[in-house]
Structures are given as structure tokens and as C-alpha cells.
Amino acid sequence: MTVPQSELQQIVSALQKSGLTVESVEDGALIQHGESxxxxxxxxxxxxxxxxxxxxxxxxxxxxxxxxxxxxGMNLLNQGLDxxxxxxxxxxxxxxxxxxxxxxxxxxxxxxxxxxxxVAELDRLREHLRxxxxxxxxxxxxxxxxxxxxxx
Length: 152
Hints:
6-stranded antiparallel sheet; single chain; elongated; Yope Regulator, Chain: A; disordered C terminus
């Protein structure tokens, strides 16, 4: 008798079999895609299917006093993204000084609902993963290295 694999284990196995470098972590997986590492989290949807969340840490940080300009730039960038969005997450700092402002990490995020974990849906996940990483990375590269880049 075989014990059924969790949704995450099934996804990790399928991605590894397709040639991607996938490392299991506590509650998710890290997928090495080029120079990027995308975090993947999966959970069963109570209405059926599987919800997959993707997170791409862009190693970009924003100080609190830059937020108005950054938010406007991110809003414009998000309008052109089809496979994900850019979000700001507060960063915990160890410095407890009164002058230390809040810093935010810029992250790419995406959510995909799969009705099942069949071959067609896992292929769709791989394509979504590829496009998400490429789209977010390309948007940030163009912005940071273009003449009208975001300034943080």
C-alpha cells in the first residue's frame, strides 16, 4: 500500500523529472531557474484542485522615504505583467533605533490554480513558472538599467 504524496511532493517530483533543479524546504520548494531562485508553495484548495504560490526575491530593498516614487513605478510595471505582480514586503531589521525607518523588499509574486495534478496541468505550471520568472526579471532589468529607471 502506497501512501499518497502531498500536492507539494507531487509537484516537486514532476518538476525534477522535467529537468529543473528543485530543492525541498520546510513548507515549500526552491526552484533554481537561471540565476533566479523561485520559492514555490502548494496547498489543496478546499473547493478542489491545488493552489500554487510563487515568490521571487529580487534582492531589491526600498527605504520608507522612497515609497511614493517606488509605488508609482511598481504600479506602472504591474500593468504590463501578465504572469505575476511586484509587491513590497516589510523587512525585519535588528536595529531598534528611533531613526531607523522601515525597509521593504521588492518581490515578484504569482498564484496559479490547478484543477488537478495531471500531466497537462503540470506542463501548464512549468510554463507559468518559466514565464513568471522571465517576465518579472526582464521588467526589473529594463527598469533598473533603462534611462527611466526606478530610483530607490
